[in-house]
Write a structure and sequence with these properties.
416 residues; mainly beta; five-stranded antiparallel sheet; 5 helices; 30 strands; 8% helix; 43% strand; globular
């Protein structure tokens, strides 16, 4: 009887350990500018091919030259910890100290810049594809922050087409994604159960569409051509700020003041939802750290308080307005919340950002955490958006979800 009870406890503990979705942990206030980099200079979705290099950068503004350690965990398609042991997905060791860091040079804001590259001498790479989480810890083994990333194999071709919504009621506000998955290198067994897809708009995992099954199969192709299930609100082009030179008022900056740090006051933005669509080139919510007349922006770019301002009547229905973008991984936090000023009749908030070029927009969040990206910016089918499609495969009897291919699409050439 005791043996049966012991086995039951083990089973329950395993169910708890492997059945809970693991969410990203946002950093404390002193950690800024978390940046995954690959083949581009801008902050991006951490999606790398099996065998490629992973680069993570971040700044610690507490001036303590603290030690940080990293751990890596493998996950299934639904972001539950996978059953694989570490030696099955990692070549080498994790739980290592980040050795590469430098202190800022010639800046008003003191900070330490940390750089983690994989492969390195201790962690030589990833053995399997799939979903991963990179977790950063301090000296006391407290979790400081975590970030998701994905490793893929180039096993299937993924065709992506962006169409106007097939739902006539929202044909002017939504964009639909059609997918074709094909491969001559692998055969899909029972694809409605073994193949899973994720569609991501503008590198934002928070709004990703998941759980879709192929509608039908033609030869070795899986076809996804839904009427409404693959539709995204089209949004509007992102607004931008340019702080590469903190002493110069660039387009969008109303005034500059030097106090303990530079303070950049932006022109007051307006509600765009009730205005006609206007094309404005952007980088789809991303950001680039950059500074004029600096050899190494990683340690020579300064921080400044950027004062955002929005002309909007006071909201009285338990909703709040936030600044939104990849500069903080699209997180909704107390620091991004705008406050209403009775005197100027505007909403405003200051954010501490490193020098560079940033995209942002204003979003509305209700008390239940529901986010509306279009209430202030509007939704227009003409908006230029980037889309990524991830294709996962778990064969019958397999122990983990492989990420076997990715595809990209852009709505610049959207069609009916």
């Amino acid at each position: 009887m005791l043996k049966k009870y012991f086995c039951l406890v083990i089973i329950l503990c395993s169910a708890i350990g492997f059945g809970q979705i693991d969410l990203e942990v946002n950093p404390p206030e002193y950690i800024k500018t978390i940046n995954f980099k690959g083949n581009t200079s801008e902050g991006q979705l951490p999606l790398l091919k099996l065998g490629d290099k992973l680069i993570l950068e971040f700044d610690a503004l507490n001036g303590e030259e603290a030690d940080f350690y990293y751990k890596i965990q493998h996950y299934d398609y639904n972001w539950n910890p996978s059953v694989l042991v570490k030696s099955e997905y990692l070549n080498g060791f994790d739980n290592q100290r980040i050795l590469d860091y430098e202190n800022s040079f010639n800046t008003f804001q003191i900070y330490s810049h940390y750089l983690l590259q994989i492969p390195n001498s201790q962690t030589r790479g990833f053995l399997v594809s799939g979903n991963y989480m990179l977790k950063i810890y301090d000296d006391y083994d407290n979790l400081v922050f975590s970030r998701k990333f994905m490793v893929y194999e180039d096993m299937v071709g993924v065709g992506v087409e962006i169409k106007r919504s097939r739902d006539v009621s929202v044909v002017n506000e939504k964009q639909s994604v059609d997918i074709t998955v094909s491969s001559n290198r692998m055969k899909f067994n029972n694809p409605k159960e073994t193949v899973k897809t994720v569609i991501i708009q503008n590198n934002n995992l928070n709004t990703a569409i998941t759980g879709l099954k192929p509608l039908y199969t033609i030869g070795n192709q899986l076809i996804y051509k839904y009427n409404t299930e693959t539709s995204f609100w089209a949004g509007n082009e992102y607004l931008f700020i340019d702080t590469k030179d903190l002493r110069v008022a660039t387009l969008g900056t109303r005034s500059i003041a030097l106090k303990e740090l530079y303070h950049n006051y932006l022109f007051t933005d307006i509600v765009r939802a009730d205005r006609p669509y206007t094309y404005n080139p952007d980088i789809n919510g991303n950001f680039v750290v950059s500074a004029i007349d600096r050899d190494d922006p990683a340690i020579e770019a300064d921080y400044a308080w950027i004062h955002f301002s929005l002309q909007h009547q006071e909201m009285i229905d338990d909703k709040s307005i936030h600044v939104y973008g990849n500069f903080n991984n699209y997180a909704i936090e107390s620091s991004t919340k705008l406050t209403f000023d009775d005197y100027s009749k505007t909403y405003s908030v200051p954010l501490l950002l490193k020098q560079g070029f940033y995209n942002y927009k204003y979003v509305v969040v209700d008390n239940n955490g529901n986010l509306n990206e279009g209430e202030i910016s509007g939704d227009f089918y003409q908006t230029e958006n980037d889309y990524k499609v991830l294709v996962y495969y778990r064969d019958l009897g397999a122990r983990y979800d492989r990420l076997v291919g990715t595809g990209n699409g852009n709505s610049i050439n959207i069609s009916n």
